[in-house]
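Hello Y.,

Per our agreement to keep a running log of every chain we model this quarter, I'm adding this entry. I've kept the format consistent with earlier entries: sequence first, then predicted structure.
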Amino acid sequence: MVQVLTPDNAVDRLEELYAEATQALRAALARFVDGGPPPSTDERTRFVYPELAVTYAPDRAAPRNRRAYGKFAHPGLYTTTVTHPGDFRRYLLDQLRPLVSEYGATIEVRPSTQEIPYPYVLDGGNEFATGHATPAELARFFPVPLLALVGDEIADGTYEGPAVSGRPLALFDAVRVDYSLRRIVHYTGTDWRAVQPWILLTNYHRYVDQFVAWAVTEIAEGRAERLVAPGGLSVDRGSLEGAAERIAISAWHRFQMPAYHLERAGTPGVTLVNIGVGPSNAKNMTDHLAVLRPDCWLMVGHCGGLRQAQEIGDYVLAHAYLRRDRILDGLLPPEIPIPALAEIQTALQEACAAVTGASGEQLKHRLRTGTVVTNDDRNWELRYTQEKQLINLSRAIAVDMESGTIAAQGYRLRVPYGTLLCVSDKPLHGEIKLPGAANTFYANAVAQHLLVGLDAIERLKRTGGAIHSRKLRSFDEPPFR
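Predicted structure for the entry above:
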């Protein structure tokens, strides 16, 4: 007889099965690399992810609620595989509890048939580098990552799995999550476990310098516990002296999109990722961060102002996007509107007023709302004759290379999103980014802009789960957000 579990019992059981599977896989790897036999067929059946199965068999009308998650679209069986259940415990419980308490769903946990690729149980990635087995030999006897088994079909609404296995319970299964967890480490230079649920994305390293300085102050004044930086460097209250300098000269430049994580006690912290320039980087990083199911990601970076009345240092709060990035056209066609999320728009505007001290007409002069063009060509000005009609028709007020991609990814992958940009030049009005003027702008504007983003996050935290907007749910959405 199958045991029906409570949400807490279910996560406990997921942890047990995952620990048993990964320990068995590590032991077999170590034995083989030391010259022992490969795993037997029977032994290999143990190298699998645990499966979480939730059944909804209603005996009454479905409850009505305004949540954007923790709800069923249809009766029936829903399943997903799970990796690192201990690290995802809070997320799993947040999803399971309303399904049981409000819908009367039942939960089962069992081994799946989805194998764990052996590189995903090696924390350092090269534990067996000094052994006698080559990668080709390991691939003969152990599960390996297979790109054919990793995809976003559920998130993109193209999934067609066998009916007998049930509908998808979550947007990402275990092997997709593990794939991205390794990518996060590779690109950011930090452990994925350090990533906080509130994320700022930027396209200039100068924001990093300001974030580090702010984080050091937060730790010194007792509002935060630790700052984690690329390359394994961390700062706490006992190592504050010279911390900013140590981070500045550290090996962050070895990583394509370095990340910095400020951890707080008893409340979620904030992560800053310097994604660099361009829509390809923006999609790449958000593809991977999405598996952590963050509460929100916000873009804070620079843009070109397109209106004569704008001044260098003014802010742009994106209400809409003209997506000329092209990178998502096959997944999310540009004619699909990307809606602004009211709670995030309000928080960004209120934060701008609080940090700048502006209000009323003064705030309207400093902060303009409207459409942002995101272009995949940094030198789009060289073909302005082709671009100007769309810019005019869209009534765009700013241009950049990342914001539309980040917002579209948030919409596509169900992560609340927002954009607050700072005008660094006005390419259509003769105010281009020359070295002297640019340095003056950076010195004066970056610190304040970052503080606006951080203030907005603190405001959003106080709204709880409200920002997980129903605007992001499809008609046939998995129960988990």
